[in-house]
Amino acid sequence: MSVLIFVAIAGIALALLLVTVLVGDFLDGTFDAIGLGDGFLSSEAVLSFFATFGLTGAILLASTDVSMLMAALAGLGAGAVVGGGAAVVTRALANGPTAHQLSAADYVDQVATVTTSIPADGMGQVHLVLAGQSTSIAARAAEPITNGSTVRIATLLGPGVVKVVREG
Length: 168
Known about the structure:
With 168 residues, this protein is α+β, with helices and mostly antiparallel strands. It folds into two domains: 2-94, no CATH class; 104-166, CATH 2.40.50.140. The protein is 44% helix and 21% strand. A hairpin with a 2-residue loop joins strand 2 (124-130) and strand 3. It comes from Cellulomonas chitinilytica.
C-alpha cells in the first residue's frame, strides 16, 4: 500500500510535467504571485521534485527493507537535488540572452540593409539581425534608397512598417 502512495505521487507529477513540457508552464507566475521563490521556482522544478520524491520512495520500499519514513527522507533528499537542478536550468534558460521576445519597438535605432529598393513615397524592404534573430521588414524613406544601402531605422510607422534614414 505505501509503495502505491509513492507511485501515485510520481505518476501525477510526471503526467503534469509532461503537460507542462508539451503545452507550456501552466503554473506560470503562480509562485511569484504568492511571493515564493523570487522567480526561482517553476512548474518544472516543483514537478521534478515530486516525481523524484515519489520514484525514489517507491523504488526503496519495493526493493529494500527500509521504513516508510526512511523512504520519504531519501525521497526528499533526491527530490531536492533534482528539483534544485531543474530550477537552476529553467531559470538560466528563462533569463538567458534569447529570453527577450523581440518586438518592432526593438528595431528603432538599429542598422539595417536595404534588400528591396525604397522609392520616394513608396515602400521597400530592409533586413536586419538583432539579438541573433534575422528579420526583414517593410520600410519607407523620405528619399529614394537603393538596394544594398545601409540605413538606420528611425521610427515605427505602423505594424510591420518602419521609417529609415540613410546611414552615414
